Amino acid sequence: MLQGMRDGDQGAAGELLSHVYRELRSIAARMMAGEPAGHTLQPTALVHEAWLRLMGGESQQFPDRAYFFAALGCAMRRILVESARRKNRLKRGGDLHRVELEQVELAAPIPDDELLALDEALTRLGQTDPRAAEVVNLCFFVGLTQEQAARELEVSISTVERKWAYARAWLYREIHPGAQEAHRTALPPAP
Question: Fewest beta carbons within 10 Å, which of 31, 34, 140, 176?
């Protein structure tokens, strides 16, 4: 289907959506599970919005399945970040939180300010180590296991594990720049 889209087949995009819709809906639900309560965007709407952004307007070229899912994961991440920015700017909703009972998953919510900081740091990581940023996108935002990410990226599991460990440390240092120095000064001197 991706090849059909590259060849200009007008029906290939619709066929692709119907073929991967359940998987995309599942990815969106996992991403939404990490959102704070009261989020008004639903997983179905997130899939549709990401699809429209990715496919709307101009013909897209996806060289392979991993690139396709990474691009959709990125689009979903941008939508969630925009929503977080809008909520931070408008400060609406008060203490009331909307809870959808369908497919409730227990996950620690990411506060909007942390999501924005993570997005900015992930963008910088993508400039210095694009593969590490891909691993974070697939494992954290899309919700793939490291084994699944290795298959999608067509690399070894050890490569994904190294990139994941590196990216986590790099992102933590970027998001919490004073933490490393505070930790270093709190340690007693070596004997």
Answer: 176
Q: pLDDT, tens digit, for every residue of 109-167?
A: 677 778 888 888 899 999 999 999 999 988 888 888 899 999 989 999 999 999 999 99
- For 45, residues 6+ apart whose C-beta sits below 8 A from its C-beta are none
What whole-number distance in Å separates Cα of residue 132 and Cα of residue 126?
Answer: 7
* pTM of this structure: 0.48
- For the chain, the 3-state helix, strand and coil shares in percent, each to the nearest 5, are 70, 0, 30
As a whole number of angstroms, the distance between CA 126 and CA 138 comes to 13
3-class SS string, 77-92: HHHHHHHHHHHHHHCC
